[in-house]
Amino acid sequence: MNLSNKLKYWYLENKRHLPWRETKDPYAIWLSEIILQQTRVIQGLPYYEAFLKTYPTVFDLANAPEDDILRLWQGLGYYSRARNLHETAKKVAFEYNGSFPNNYKDLILLKGIGDYTAAAIASIAFDEVVPVVDGNVFRVLSRIYGITSDISAGATKKEFQQLAQTLIPQNNPALFNQAIMDFGAIQCTPKSPDCSACPFIKECIAYQTNQVDKLPIKISKVKVKNRYLDFLIFVDQNNCTLIEQRTQKDIWQKLYQFPVIDRFENKKADINSIIQTQYAKINVQNITLMNPKQIVHVLSHQKLHIHFWLINTADVLTEGVQWSELNKFGFPIVIHNFIQSYSNYITNQTLP
């Protein structure tokens, strides 16, 4: 089976036209790969364009304040990617004089760059013959070759890398890598792929043995923990509120939030008691639960159950921030969405 040639012809007819494919600039390619980690192309594209417009060179990104980068990243999730992006930009700009390493071995040493990202940059920007192996590649190869190994196991990843290495052509590794990624994203999809239009229908073991919906096999499952968050939105008569920055190595590190009651047990928070204990100096007029139905926000390892409480005070919040200035700070998307939805209510006391 000449998989490489079939993939090439399929790709030339069906490829997605994406801006980072129109360049060999390693900065632009790296930026796209970091943004597209854990993010679909349709969601990541506007962020890629915004970052490239705001920070057209690695020096611009390296010199930017981290808060600005986190605010621009807002909504993409997995915020450690943005922090790593900034760290690597600084290293490349200030230690490598703006030049990215031109090979897989050195690229993988940079923060936030793993096997897949290093292979993508090395092959696309520098034509190094190194295959990418991600979820799309696992799916395509496991189905075509009927591989039933557990893809969550480290040994299986090596098995797929070795197979991909035998398939990638020496003369155009970039095209092969982009072709197999697009083939998995467009044709050999996770659910209900259109096998009748697949160029590998005769060779595909999964299709021939009726295992398309069973492959690839992934045995391990991430255990998701429940977490309960009550955000306290203090607002004074000047429309000022209190915010704080999350500094611990936890979810949303270095993003901003309202003061929060954070717990892992499903027990009702005694808001009045907590305010009397922790915020005794604030003269509370009234407390309003803004969302009687909790907001459920799902992360990779946690399911967040969220309530927002509006707490009006007659005091002047001397350390407060004007509500209209909140857009200058980077918030987790769930808090950002709340601010957008309830600004009218909070500033004018009318329902949104």
TrEMBL record:
EC number in record: 3.2.2.31
Cofactor, free-text remark: Binds 1 [4Fe-4S] cluster.
Keyword set includes Aminoacyl-tRNA synthetase: no
Reactions mediated catalytically: Hydrolyzes free adenine bases from 7,8-dihydro-8-oxoguanine:adenine mismatched double-stranded DNA, leaving an apurinic site
Single GO MF annotation: adenine/guanine mispair binding
UniProtKB keywords: 4Fe-4S, DNA damage, DNA repair, Glycosidase, Hydrolase, Iron, Iron-sulfur, Metal-binding
Coiled-coil intervals, chain numbering: none
Gene3D superfamilies: Helix-hairpin-Helix base-excision DNA repair enzymes (C-terminal), Hypothetical protein, domain 2, Nucleoside Triphosphate Pyrophosphohydrolase
SMART domains: ENDO3c
Presence of keyword DNA-binding: no
Pfam families named among the record's database cross-references: HhH-GPD, NUDIX_4
Cofactor: [4Fe-4S] cluster
Transmembrane portions of the chain: none
GO biological process: base-excision repair; mismatch repair
InterPro entries: A/G_AdeGlyc_MutY, DNA_glycosylase, HhH-GPD_domain, HhH_base_excis_C, MIG/MutY, MutY_C, NUDIX_hydrolase-like_dom_sf
Domain HhH-GPD: 35-186
Family the UniProt entry places it in: Belongs to the Nth/MutY family.
Role summary: Adenine glycosylase active on G-A mispairs. MutY also corrects error-prone DNA synthesis past GO lesions which are due to the oxidatively damaged form of guanine: 7,8-dihydro-8-oxoguanine (8-oxo-dGTP).
UniProt protein name: Adenine DNA glycosylase
